[in-house]
TrEMBL record:
GO terms for biological process: nucleobase-containing compound metabolic process. Belongs to the CCR4/nocturin family. Pfam families: Exo_endo_phos. Keywords: Hydrolase. Residues 59-398 form the Endonuclease/exonuclease/phosphatase domain. This is DNase I-like protein. Residues 9-28 have a biased composition (Basic and acidic residues). Residues 1-37 are annotated as: Disordered. It comes from Hesseltinella vesiculosa. PANTHER family: CARBON CATABOLITE REPRESSOR PROTEIN 4, NOCTURNIN. It comes from the Eukaryota. GO terms for molecular function: 3'-5'-RNA exonuclease activity. InterPro entries: CCR4/nocturin_mRNA_transcr, Endo/exonu/phosph_ase_sf, Endo/exonuclease/phosphatase.
């Protein structure tokens, strides 16, 4: 075979290069797009921790149940509403911040996905939902840091503390967790061993319907009351003083609402009192409830709704005592956030939900006043979320709250 001339050799080389490039482009077209990565937010120091204090990190996060992902409510989300995309975003975000204690709301697909996913991250988890709901609440804790020593649930529809105005199917979890102490040689150094630390961790999702201010406040006060009851019982039964309630969740309550004022020890304004009294009744279904209907939904008999306590009776029965007043771990957030506008005339965040249908503050980590929040995870700038979330940086319509807490010994 005669040798090829240089021109023919070069022509064949170019043809092979072109074939390889075409094959590469074809492979790229058939490859799935890269999964989005959660936006990494900034930690803000709020105070210094005492050398003798116990430190714990806590997250509260409404992760948006997949059953509630309706396209008309999230017109800007596009492919971010897809289950496999969002679930990875949620787990990756939690893995990145790795809080010791975890309170999630709007959790569905728990047995199918989240239970195993969080176990791989080192979390022991407990899930609870009302029988009429497709989604519920989940508490998780790093089992090499904390040990579960008690657990209770609340059903606001049937709690005997005070009559409900309507049946909503909202629930709460309360878990007693004791810090796992490690021998660090304190006895040899002559230091006194640290006192055992127990947290009564609460997690809830209160009723969402905006007109139902009274019922939401009733639920929130029951939640606070039962959490402190569990704290007192645990402290008395175990002869332990170092027991701290931590109240987390999506309270569907803004800082300007009556429940926030009552929980934090602020006097109610005349407007808030009128709002409470005027909503002391059941509400019909004239407002569309975005919770998918179930066969077990129950309507409240109007005759029973009239049994609801007055505001004075409600506060007298289960209102916080002065030594039970709470403070928000994010109540100074506005001092450090560059985009803060003070929409609530306070330094609470301007938003913890940034959805198409509503933007505002509904989520909280509330602690007794002796506890010192030493760090919080700053909320992202507006432009990172605009026009709404979920988007390629955030897997839910709510934002996670994460705080580092210093617990007095």
């Amino acid at each position: 075979m005669p040798p090829l001339d240089p021109a023919t050799i070069e022509e064949r080389r170019q043809k092979k290069r072109a074939e390889r490039e075409a094959k590469r482009k074809e492979q790229q077209q058939h490859q799935p797009p890269a999964m989005p990565i959660p936006f990494q937010r900034t930690w803000q120091t709020l105070a210094t921790s005492s050398k003798t204090a116990q430190s714990v990190s806590v997250m509260s996060y409404n992760i948006l149940a997949q059953a509630l992902c309706q396209r008309e409510l999230f017109p800007h989300a596009g492919n971010m509403l897809k289950w496999k995309t969002r679930r990875k975003m949620i787990v990756d975000e939690i893995a990145y911040y790795r809080p010791q204690l975890l309170c999630l709301q709007e959790v569905d697909n728990y047995d199918e996905f989240y239970k195993a996913a969080f176990a791989k991250l080192g979390y022991q988890t407990t899930y609870h939902r009302h029988e009429t709901k497709r989604q519920g609440c989940m508490i998780g804790y790093l089992d090499d840091e904390w040990k579960q020593v008690g657990y209770e649930t609340l059903d606001y529809d049937t709690d005997p503390a005070c009559p409900a105005t309507q049946f909503t199917g909202n629930v709460a979890q309360m878990m007693a967790l004791t810090k796992i102490e490690r021998d660090c040689g304190s006895h040899e150094s002559g230091e006194s061993p640290a006192l055992p630390t127990t947290i009564i961790l609460g997690n809830t999702h209160l009723y969402w319907r905006p007109p139902s201010t009274y019922e939401r406040c009733r639920q929130g006060l029951i939640y606070h009351h039962r959490l402190w009851e569990m704290q007192k019982t645990w402290a008395a039964n175990n002869d332990q003083s170092n027991v701290w309630p931590v109240l987390c969740g999506d309270l569907n309550t803004q800082p300007s609402d009556p429940l926030y004022a009552l929980l934090t020890g602020q006097p109610l304004s005349e407007y808030q009192m009128v709002c409470m009294e005027s909503t002391r009744r059941s509400f019909g279904d004239d407002d569309h409830d975005f919770e998918p209907p179930t066969d077990k939904s129950v309507a409240m008999d109007p005759a029973h709704a009239s049994d609801a306590f007055s505001l004075d009776q409600l506060v007298a029965a289960i209102g916080p005592l002065p030594d039970q007043w709470m403070k928000s771990a994010y109540n100074h957030h506005g001092r450090y956030h560059e985009s803060h506008v003070g929409r609530y005339k306070s330094t609470e965040p301007d938003y913890t939900i940034f959805a198409h249908v509503f933007k505002g503050t509904l989520d909280y980590i509330l602690v007794p006043r002796p506890i010192t929040p030493t760090q919080c995870l700053l909320l992202p700038p507006y432009e990172k979320m605009s026009p709404a979330i979920p988007n390629e940086s955030f897997g839910s319509d709510h934002l996670s709250l994460v705080a580092q807490l210093s617990l007095p010994q």
